[in-house]
Amino acid sequence: MNSLWFFDDVNLFTILCPHRFKDFKKSHEFNVYKKNDYIYFEEDSADKIYLINYGKVKIGYVTEDGDEIIMAILSKGEIFGEKAILGEEKRNEFAQAIDSETSLCTITTDMMIELLRENKEFSLKIYKFIGFRFKKLERRLQLLLFKDTKTRLKEFIKELGEDFGYKNVVTGDTIIRQPYTQKELATLIGTSRPTLNILLNELKDENYLDFDRKEITLKKYGLGN
């Protein structure tokens, strides 16, 4: 597993949440959001970082034409809004809860910097992780803007294989336990759910993959195409 949102099998929430630190525990609270509640909007002040206790959050932005572009859907243990510790003053994306109930650990920029300062080795890993994440988000944006829907789906499934998959030692296929619903997957590649189903079935007929509600099997052949 080589996940975009985790590194070295470390769950960021369990390490960074102030609730785990004696000096911060008393003043720390979790914030709960209902489905479709916005955590922040584009142009809001970037003065907090968020860790997901439970639930899901989508990250995206709105184009000048009013189209919504979804860059990521995050879940338990993941971090967002982290550009605040890099000096960003205004948000250039929105964050919205998409589960019926989403609990977040909210950390001020000053508190996060203090936590990172206490562990320099981990601090370096955090900044390296952020850089790696930016590169992957930039690549995803390029796919959304310049590639056809079928190519976007194939590339995104390859990425899921890298982040969430494991190898079947007998067949050489990559097994991906689905981290997203079909609706979420369609949103992430910028298409509709009916179109996604059509494309998945086309790729199945081409022996590129197999799929059910719980898993996607990326065929050994598919890894080279």
User: Compute the gyration radius: what is it?
Assistant: 18 Å
Quick check: average pLDDT?
83
Helix content: 25-40%
Detail the poorly predicted runs. Answer: 1-10
How many DSSP-defined strands? 12
Structural class of the secondary elements? Answer: alpha+beta
Kindly report the spatial arrangement of strands forming the biggest sheet.
1-8-3-6
Order of helices and strands: HHEEEEEEEEHHHEEHHEE
Task: Give the termini distance in whole angstroms.
Answer: 21 Å
The number of helices is: 7
> Can you summarize the main beta sheet?
4 strands, antiparallel
Name the shape in a single word. globular
What percent strand?
A: 15-25%
Q: What attributes characterize this protein structure?
A:
about 220 residues; about 25% strand; alpha+beta; about 35% helix; DNA-binding; Crp/Fnr family transcriptional regulator; four-stranded antiparallel beta sheet; disordered N terminus; single chain; transcription regulation
Question: Could you give the topology of this structure?
Answer:
Blueprint lengths: L11 H5 L5 H4 L4 E5 L3 E3 L7 E7 L2 E6 L5 E7 L4 E2 L13 E4 L3 E8 H9 L2 H27 L2 H16 E3 L6 E4 L4 H7 L4 H13 L3 E3 L3 E4 L7
Antiparallel strand pairs: 1-8, 2-7, 3-6, 3-8, 4-5, 4-7, 9-10, 10-12, 11-12
Keywords: DNA-binding, Transcription, Transcription regulation
Protein name: Crp/Fnr family transcriptional regulator
